[in-house]
Amino acid sequence: MTGICIRPANADDAAGFPAIERSAANAFLSVAGLEWIAGEAVMSAEQHRVHIDAGTVWLAETEGRSIGFVTSAIFGDALHIIELSVADGHQGQGLGRRLLEAAAEYARDNGLAALTLTTFRDLPFNETFYQKLGYRTLNEAEMPKRLADILEAEIENGLPGNRRCAMRLML
């Protein structure tokens, strides 16, 4: 995709992130049993700014317009992907992959060993997408406590546990 710039986000960019996340969530409207996610609350601009200040957020933009982002945080030797969102109408064009590549480059440059995330199982734009990029779904025995705790919190907040998984990409 040409005309797309991937760059570190700045504090001013955060104001547009909730709208991008809401737009991206429209993908769930076509997933039986998960349609409700499209109407759920998203991370606030203030929450994103905390991670922007830490230098762990990247933005995709075209013609000065923000169309995607990845927000992450360092935990031990891993960069954890908190949120990856690409606006509806720009999905399926490689932007998510490019945003994740920016995060992986940062992780490598900072001596981190892996990228981690939690996501939905068996959805082409979730677990399957990450598997194509080299992420591996973790089983219960190999899952770090931090990821198990995140999954538990997601379930407590209403996500269906049988449809969630944790994944890791070793760098």
Features:
single chain; 171 residues; alpha+beta; 7-stranded mixed sheet; 27% strand; globular
Sequence-ordered SSE layout with sheet pairings:
Layout lengths: L3 E5 L8 H9 L19 H10 L2 E6 L2 E11 L2 E9 L8 H15 L4 E7 L6 H6 L3 E2 L7 H12 L7 E7 L1
Parallel strand pairs: 4-5
Antiparallel strand pairs: 1-2, 2-3, 3-4, 5-7, 6-7
Please provide a written account of the structure.
The two termini are about 25 Å apart. The protein is globular. The longest helix has 15 residues, at about 95-110. It has a 7-stranded mixed sheet, sandwiched between helices. The protein has 5 helices and 7 strands; from the N terminus they run βααβββαβαβαβ. The protein has about 170 residues and is of the alpha+beta class.
In short:
The protein has helices at 17-25, 45-54, 95-109, 127-132, 145-156; strands at residues 4-8, 57-62, 65-75, 78-86, 114-120, 136-137, 164-170. The protein has 171 residues and is α+β, with helices and mostly antiparallel strands. 32% of the residues are buried.
Unreliable runs: none
The count of β-strands is 7
The count of helical stretches stands at 5
> Structural class of the secondary structure composition?
alpha+beta
Task: Note the run of SSEs as H and E.
Answer: EHHEEEHEHEHE
Please, what is the average pLDDT? 95
